Amino acid sequence: MTKNLPPNTVERLSNYRRRLLAIQGKDYIHSHQLAHLMKINPAHVRRDLMLIGFSGDVHKGYNIKKLIAQIGKNIDCENKHRVAFIGIGDLGRALYHEFNNGHSKLEIAATFRLSEEPIQQFFDIKCYNISKLKQVLKKENIDIVVLALPNINAKDITKTIVDAEIKGILNFTSVHLDVPEDVFVENYDMIGKLEKLSYFTSCR
Amino acid sequence: MTKNLPPNTVERLSNYRRRLLAIQGKDYIHSHQLAHLMKINPAHVRRDLMLIGFSGDVHKGYNIKKLIAQIGKNIDCENKHRVAFIGIGDLGRALYHEFNNGHSKLEIAATFRLSEEPIQQFFDIKCYNISKLKQVLKKENIDIVVLALPNINAKDITKTIVDAEIKGILNFTSVHLDVPEDVFVENYDMIGKLEKLSYFTSCR
DNA sequence: TAGATTGTTAATCGATTAACAATC
DNA sequence: TAGATTGTTAATCGATTAACAATC
After folding, report:
1. What was the pLDDT predicted at B178?
2. How high is the pLDDT of residue B151?
3. Fewest 10 Å CB contacts: which of A88, B44, B87, B167?
4. End-to-end distance of chain B based on CA atoms, in angstroms?
5. Quick one: closest CA in B to A39, which residue?
6. In A 11-70, which Cβ lie closer than 7 Å to strand D?
7. In this predicted model, what pLDDT tens digit does every residue of A159-182 receive, in sequence order?
8. Strands of the sheet with A121-122, listed across from one edge
9. Which residues of chain B have pLDDT under 50?
10. What are the CA-CA distances from residue B20 to residues A153, A177, B13 (Å)?
11. Residue numbers of A between 3 and 42 with CB closer than 8 Å to B
12. Pairing label, strands B121-122, B168-171
């Protein structure tokens, strides 16, 4: 894994790979073709591939199979990350399907429910009561937590998560989490996006 | 509504407002306090408020009530946007709750299902078969479409949406949509975010 | 007043795009 | 070869942050 790639490049590389995997019956692709699939500038593609040290052929372009492999070498972790879901409502279920849909480097190791109902399973994953959070995060060697729960609970639970030395949080609440510098938080604020969309979609 | 605010500023203004609305028993707030809630730089707050022409008091800071109103004047549409959901699986349901949870400028006017099952309602909203898409988008004066459906269907449906002159799309598939310049697309690619998170969360 | 905060410009930083020599 | 594409540097663009005069 190459460290120090710019965050946006990592996100794009992940996207390149998914598009490349979907291509059938072609061995090579040019920068402008890949750029077109992503709606970005061809120079951008070339620059990103330069950053991961991948070379193409001046005439044929980039070898698709080799490029997929090279992207993997650069952005995939050697070991699987172990992920915990906190909150197993509709959003949790939607994410579960997303996870099982082709992403192999993250495995759901545990889920937690906030209510007292005696649910023991979430699909094929064990489901614990939130009171067991810290203990299970440790025991199961969780690396990454996905917060898919009501805003109101986010603050307390984040504290426990940080205590358990979790280093990655995917945050679906609209609360800004207060975490130490070494914890990477990816925010996923739906309401913010909606209001932005509303603003830039001209009123009639 | 003030046009030409930078996209990121619009998103932040929406966030400021939500945080301000949550504040109890205080009339004024300083730039550094609001910045702390958002985990951004105080200068950033002041600059954003400058852009919407809002002034504070050198000693007391910004009047919370007035600021909320001023943000509304700048980012809210005069009329409600009419929104259609395409896809009413787990993700659709999660979004439905998100919508009903405090966002007043967007109202769900119709939903569409892809399967043939004879569902007529999605919570309190009418649900149509996807075959009626174009016709209903027109009839119901839809402005914004939320795509919460399998990738495989995204391309065809986008074509219909663009034909129906929809100007805003919130895209939850991981397909990059090919739309004319005047259609605003907000992408919400979960897998990309997950891989980014995985990359920046150090492996152990 | 002294000290803190605002409003605003300028500087910095990072990401995107243009340009073009090298290549085949 | 002529023409197209790559790889890479430099230029541009936009967003963030620093700095500081003005204010009370």
Report:
1. 83
2. 79
3. B44
4. 49
5. B176
6. 30-32, 42-43, 46-47, 49-50, 54-59, 61-62
7. 999 999 999 999 988 788 888 878
8. A121-122, A125-129, A106-113, A81-86, A144-147, A168-171, A184-187
9. 204
10. 19, 16, 10
11. 5, 7, 10-11, 14-15, 18-19, 37-39
12. unpaired
Q: Which residue has the tokens 């949509």?
A: B177
* Ranges A9-23, A183-197, B118-132: which has the least confidence: A183-197
Same fold? B7-75, B81-192: no
Q: Is B123 on the interface with A (CB under 8 A)?
A: no
Q: Would you say B48 and B13 are in contact if contact means Cβ atoms under 8 Å apart?
A: yes
Cβ neighbours of residue B13 under 8 Å, at least 6 residues apart?
B5, B48, B52, B71, B74, B75
How much is the pTM?
0.84
Question: The domain A81-192: what is its CATH number?
Answer: 3.40.50.720
Alpha helices, H only, chain A: 7-21, 31-38, 42-51, 64-75, 90-99, 133-139, 151-163, 190-200
What does DSSP say about strands B81-86 and B144-147: parallel, antiparallel, or unpaired? Answer: parallel
Q: Where are the domains of chain B?
A: 7-75, 81-192
- Helix residue ranges, H only, B52-150: 64-75, 90-99, 133-139
Nearest-angstrom CA–CA distance, B10 and A202: 14
Q: Which helix (H) or strand (E) holds A118?
A: none
CATH number of A7-75: 1.10.10.10
Least confident range of A5-9, A76-80, A85-89, A111-115: A76-80
Q: What is the pLDDT of residues A101-146, one digit of tens each?
A: 766 688 899 999 998 877 789 999 999 999 999 999 999 999 999 9
Instruction: Of B196, B153, B148, B195, give the one whose Cα is nearest residue B172.
Output: B148
CB-CB contact of A199 with B13 (8 Å): no
Residue bearing tokens 């993700």 = B91
Tokens of A73: 């070498």
Amino acid identity, position B155? K
